[in-house]
Amino acid sequence: MGGCNCNKGSKDECCFTCCEDKQLVQDKVCSNFLIAVATPRTIYTSVGVDARNFFASGTITYADGADPISVQFFLGTTASGPAILVDPGSSLSFTKTNFNSIQITAAGATADTPATGEICVTPRYRV
Predict the structure, then answer these.
(1) Closest C-alpha to 105, from 77, 84, 126, 81
(2) Which residues contact 83 (CB under 8 A, 6 or more apart)?
(3) How many domains is the chain partitioned into structurally?
(4) Tell me: the pLDDT tens digits for 25-80?
(5) How far is CA 63 from CA 67, 103, 113, 120, 127, in A?
(6) Does the residue 17 lie in any domain?
(7) According to the 3-state scheme, what is the secondary structure of the chain?
(8) How far apart are the C-alpha atoms of 1 and 30, rounded to whole Å?
């Protein structure tokens, strides 16, 4: 819809806020990860975007490793919801708001048996 002109005399015109044009940026970021230590690793961070107007969907694919990984979303230094466990050979899909980073903890990861996978994130935010 090219705009929203309210013309109450016409059934074809819209007078609702959902008709307003929204200027959103949409990117897609994909990256492989390899974690060879048991400490949390940040695998995604958004910078310069107000987290209240930040929406993202994506996948985290855990290709190979010894034990499940723990995926945690953060808003600053505060966890944004509970951690999610993902088994080797599995994927996690998500749609989330109110976060600006994602951490993975691979408790069983070592240099000999690292946790490997891929993260794909499609963030949307107002310009």
Answers:
(1) 84
(2) 70, 71, 72, 105
(3) 1
(4) 667 889 999 999 999 999 999 887 777 778 899 999 999 998 999 999 999 899 99
(5) 11, 17, 12, 13, 35
(6) no
(7) CCCCCCCCCCCCCCCCHHHCCCCEEECCEEEEEEECCCCCEEEEECCCCCHHHEEEEEEEEEEECCCCEEEEEEECCEECCCCEEECCCEEEEEEEECCCEEEEECCCCCCCCCEEEEEEEEEEEEC
(8) 31
Higher per-residue pLDDT: 2 or 33? 33
* Structure confidence at residue 1 as a pLDDT band (50, 70, 90): very low
Please tell me which residue, 15 or 113, carries the higher pLDDT value: 113
**Residue 31 within a domain:** yes
Decide if 116 is inside a domain.
Answer: yes
Question: What CATH number is given to the structural domain containing 26?
Answer: 2.60.120.380
* Domain ranges, residue 35: 22-126
Name the one residue in this structure whose structure tokens are 């209240």. Answer: 52
